[in-house]
Amino acid sequence: MNKDVKVIKVKNLCKKFGDFTANNNLSFEVSKGEIFGFLGANGAGKTTAIKILCGLSYPTSGEISVAGFDVYKQREQLKRNIGYMSQKFSLYEDLTVFENIRFYGGIYGLSKEVIHRKADDLLKKLDLQHARNKRISSLPLGWKQKLAFSVAIFHDPEIVFLDEPTGGVDPVTRRQFWDLIYEASREGITIFVTTHYMDEAEYCDRVSIMVDGKIEALDTPAKLKEDFNAVDMDQVFLALARTATNVE
């Protein structure tokens, strides 16, 4: 992680839908190579914020840059420099493993030669050479997950956004998936991840916790546990939720 290089800069981000405020004055920065956890209950505003950071939605107000690009004026350049993986893994079930890799490589603008070379390296790394011509629908969930993440960073993006990437998989597969995240981070890719598994927050360099559209806490897991006199991140999250409820 390079703390001096900020690849995400967010200042006073607001997003309103009529009278409803989904994101209320969010401000934070993310460093190059950092694993940044974006936590919160359903409806807290996480997905709305991610769509803005990925160039899929405009903010109502605020100053936001991602990978050095302005989210208002440079959305297409931004999209080419990030990766994205959702809980549904973003893979086409009726295409083969290689056809998915080739398809996404083409979208990212890679040449045929580069796609074939990187595909060979990727399948060897994941020990999936035998599944090259198998349809995605025939693969176990854990394989789909690892392949989807690898495809999301196939073009060596500055940042990859992972939206609930480990939902529905067993604990062992989740741990293996985080090994891939750590490796990508060591290679300089910034990881921006949402998760509802509080134990996964422990794997992040820093975490932001949103409650009702606001960032109520942002720090390292160790510092947050110290501040809230908590033994784990579940207790931190519950304490913040109770505080927000009492304020209301």
TrEMBL record:
GO terms for molecular function: ATP binding; ATP hydrolysis activity. This is ABC-2 type transport system ATP-binding protein. Residues 8-237 form the ABC transporter domain. InterPro entries: AAA+_ATPase, ABC_transporter-like_ATP-bd, P-loop_NTPase. It holds the Pfam family ABC_tran. SMART domains: AAA (SM00382). Keywords: ATP-binding, Nucleotide-binding. It comes from Marinifilum flexuosum.
